[in-house]
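Good morning C.,

I know you're traveling, so I'll keep this short. The sequence:
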Amino acid sequence: MGTAGAERYPHLFSPLRLGPLELQNRFVVPALTTNFGDLDGQVTDEVCGYLGRRGAGGFGLVVCENFGVQAGAKAMPRMLMAHEDRYIPGMAKLAAAVKQAGAPVLAQLNHPGRQTKSKFTGHELVAPSAIPCPINREMPRALSRDEIPEWEEYYVRAAERAAEAGFDGVEVHGAHGYLVAGFLSSYANTREDDYGGSLENRCRFLLNIVDGIRNRMGPDFPLSVRISAREFVPDGIDVAEAIEIGRAVAAHGANALSVSVGVYQTFNKLSMVTGEPEGQWLDLAGEVRAGIPIPVMGVGRLVRAQVAEQGLAAGQIDLACFGRASMADPELPVKIRTRREAEVLTCMGCNICLGRSARPESICPVNPTIGREAEFDFAATASAQTVAVVGASFSALTAAWVAAKCGHKVTLHGNGAQGGALGGLMALRAKVPGNAVIGETAAALLGRAQAAGVQLSEQLPEAADVVWAVREFRPLDAAGPEGAISATAVFEGDQAGEALVVGDDLCAAEAAVVLAQRGGQVTLLSPARDIANDSHPGFREVCRRRLDAAGANIEVKVAEPFAHAAREQADFVVLGRGAVADWDDAGNWRLPEVGLPVSAYLDDAYEPGLLTRTVYEAVALARAL
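The tokens, ready to paste straight into the viewer:
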């Protein structure tokens, strides 16, 4: 039967007191913006369904995404708000949804300060000093000394509303460069009064907020503070200051410190992508934990229980924040506890949920139910059809799962159903060093489909009411020299030697990484302003880091790449996407051989944003059956 989860991970499944709260385990859903609120900042059924499902999934604590504490406190257009009493009924509905599902819940309180845009807040930006955020580049107004107490009171009043709404406690957001963090950090705070200069002065805004909440709510109201222990910018917060901040908030009555990293300028340090190490910031959290007297929540792309367990056992953290991992699988803790760890839908770090979302709300190619949980509680159809799905891309695995949940008789045929290219084009990405998690995700998607009743066959279908087949988006540069190979061919072959790789897309960049790892001298030329220009910027950073480590040459804005000196030295040329990678151009698609008329094609793509599009279109196709 295997080892029970609580026996295998004793620290993860041990209880912990957070003030008066008795947490049943150390799994935490940290505050993550979803944009499931409405444009007025009210709680919606989507927010309640999303967080309620995670409360039911066995998490020991849920920290709700940030609530704005003042009228101009929107970091995103659909951010939840708590600056007026009219928001209390919606807040109460959300708190009840999580608590009734079985988890205690904290409301995170925030004002973005200079890290927002007045075009959607409708208010001027404010900050400790008149220094614009290097990313948003809008000049904020420096708060005057006389008005600061009023701004501290905004947080306290929001905490009172959270308590009235039934939240178990609150978390003050003092991380990531927002208003509280701006006061804490010399990077954003150049004041010369008693709110600037020394760390003691820079802590005053936060500590007055903590004092205000404690004085108003009493000692038995759980209070957490989130900070960035390292901001990775000049004059930014470092570990030594983070420890002093932690000691100060503990002395003023905080029950826990949530240790994160980064500001908007260094956001890739926080929202790490596929290929970056799991638990990267646990050592940092451990340094802080060793110097403060209250429990520490740790972040840093925690995906696997084993990594979190090691951090807990080593005393680096007291609570493990499974952020994007909880998006991918809301039942992560209960699956691990009940010996079903192999069924966990593993977050692969594509960062579509927080990054390049084509929709106003968070979306996920692994778990397209987020924000629509109730819509996926299907009733079985009264007219079941036989459905043949040819291929095993993420879109195919998802469409097969949804159709089976609707009561149809679904078979996944050939081309990866058992062995082969499970995951479709993602099977190629899984071959990039550090990307093995993608293969684990594909295997979990197959398992999800089988659990819903999908059958497997290595043969092509002979008959079916409905036939869906996977077609692959493979845009190439037709202007390349004779004998050039596609970037995808690098993953499918064993080429090695001196290579010239031409392309501005993620596929070309990761092909260059693979070739460099094989030991050859690689030159990557991009006609655009950067490499991996079609993807989340975090992937550019990861690819650059790996190519630099391998001694590869990278050049951008290259107008005539095939006239480059590296062309003469190269043993072969590799082509990424062309200058116009048109989704609607039939020439950019590779069609499968099926043997039967195809009812509809399921698309597949290499870049995560396009991949997500294919998954959501597959869901729509299956639901319409």
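Safe travels,
E.
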